[in-house]
Amino acid sequence: MLKDCSVAIIAGGQSKRFGSPKYRAKIGRLRLIDMAVSLARQLSQDIMIISGLEAIKKEFELPVFADKFPRCGPLAGIHSALIHATTEWVAVLPVDMPLLKAEFYFSLYEQRKHNTPIVAETNKGIEPMVSLWPRSAIPTIERALKDKQFKIHSVLQALSAVQVLFPPKDAIHFFNVNFESDLNLIQAFLSEDTP
Fold this sequence. Notes:
alpha/beta
C-alpha cells in the first residue's frame, strides 16, 4: 500500500472517439472501471472516482467527484482529485489503461522528491496519466486551467516533474483504449499472457 496516498480513477472523459462511456466497456466479463478499481485497491484504501457522469455515482460506494473546471480534459480531472484528497499524494489511474500494474505505481512512489509530480515514461515518451501528484501542485494546475492551458505535459514541466523510465517490455501495459477494436487487442494480449 502507498502511504499517505489516495488513488484517483479518472473516468470522466467524453469518449468521443470511443462512442460511449469507456468505463462501461468490457474485456471478457470485466468492465474497464472494475479493472481499475481492482488495481486501485492494491495501492490504497483511499480511492475516489473522478467523473461527471451521473450514472457512475449509482454504481459504486466509492466517492465520485466531478471536475471543478468541466470540459477541460484530464488536467481538470487531476485538479479535482487533488482538491478532494485527504492525503498529501494522489496516484492518478486512467480508466482506459486496463493493463497497468500495481508495481508501476510503487516504482513511481519510490521516486518522491522535493514535492514534485512523478510521471511514468516509456520508449514512446511520458505517460502523464500514470503519475503521482502532491497537493502542493494545486495552485499551478489552477493557473493553467484558468489560462486555458490544458496540456498536462506543460504543467509537469513547470513543476519539474520526476520522470521514471520503464523498459520497452513494459510499454504494452501503457496501451490505452480509444476505440472498440482496442478491446479485442487487449483481450488477445491477456489470452497470450495467461499460461
